[in-house]
Amino acid sequence: MKNILDGKLLARELELRLIAEINRFVAQVGRPPGLGVIRVGDDPASKVYVSNKEKACRRVGLNSVVLHLGADSSPEAIIQTIESLNNDHKIDGILLQLPLPQGIDAAPLLQAISPDKDVDGLHALNLGRLIKGEKGPRSCTPAGIMALLRRNKVTLEGKNAVVIGRSILVGKPMALMLQAADATVTIAHSKTANLPVLTNQADILIVAAGKAHLIGDEHVRANSIVVDVGIHRINKESSMPGKLGYKLCGDVRSEEVAYKVKAITPVPGGVGPMTVSMLLVNTVNCWQFHCGLSSTLSDLLP
Ligand code: NAD
Hints:
With 302 residues, this protein is α/β, with parallel strands linked by helices. It has two domains: 28-115, Rossmann fold (3-Layer(aba) Sandwich); 140-272, Rossmann fold, CATH 3.40.50. Helix content is 39%, strand content 17%. The protein has ten helices and ten strands. The strands form three sheets. Strands 5-4-6-7-10 form a five-stranded parallel β-sheet. A three-stranded parallel β-sheet has the order 2-1-3, with helices on both faces. A hairpin with a 6-residue loop joins strand 8 and strand 9. Helix 2 packs across helix 10, helix 6 (140-151) crosses helix 7 and helix 6 (140-151) packs across helix 10 (271-290). The longest helix has 23 residues, at 7-29. The chain is globular. Bound molecules: nicotinamide-adenine-dinucleotide. Residues 141, 164-167, 169-171, 188-190, 192, 195, 208-211, 214, 229-231, 271-272, 275 line the site of nicotinamide-adenine-dinucleotide.
């Protein structure tokens, strides 16, 4: 492997920057930044993600409150919980952990989050701001990828970027951010014909299809930059006889493409830590706004 885009390393650097920003102003404003996380149901992966986010909050001195609702909660009950956080002056950011249990539509719930506390950047107003190039909280995963590319001095201007995936969470905001950075962007999706022909034109290939091992040698151009957003648990034999363990993998068969790429994100340790970091960045940025402080983190919000 020639070059790893190390998200874990950059996440650590960003945490140090956030600690400094919080320490600089916490005495003046009288409270640390606050994040409210709502988890609905018992999806095991979501439980792990929320716990990782809580730990990250503790590391930087951010106050986090996790509200866990049952899988059978009504949309009205979830909206009521969102409203209570909207009205809580110690809470700067609200995260509704996705995915929600089957049958609950996320759209009206995301819309109920106050746009100035929307640290996932998924409220229609903030997505509109992204389209218009106006300031606002940015969707964490693509914003984290932009920070990682920038930190590794990846030139985007005039480059061909292909984004696989068109979700509101990753693919679409990713494409908009790359376009705003002057890349020429193509979005591929599940109905795209002849994917390898398209992806072979990519100087920068962002893979967010959510399909383990989808992308291999035949898709990847020599000397390109590959960002693997996918994250999957694959069962494997554990060292305990008779028990199954698991390992994490991405959407890319990284061992197959490693020899030809210029740089690639690892799974784990690439996009995942950057997503958590950007949640912290968005929350501290909202805290600065709510407390009447100047924003010192806008370079991280593409
Ligand atoms: P999603 O299921 O909402 O969207 C997947 C997209 O991929 C869709 O637009 C679909 O059209 C496209 N797609 C599916 N199969 C395809 C194929 N064969 N060829 C081309 N396109 C195809 O998923 P999402 O929420 O955008 O997440 C994508 C992946 O990223 C998932 O594995 C998710 O777990 C992961 N993810 C990781 C992080 C992180 O922090 N590492 C954050 C968010 C999402």
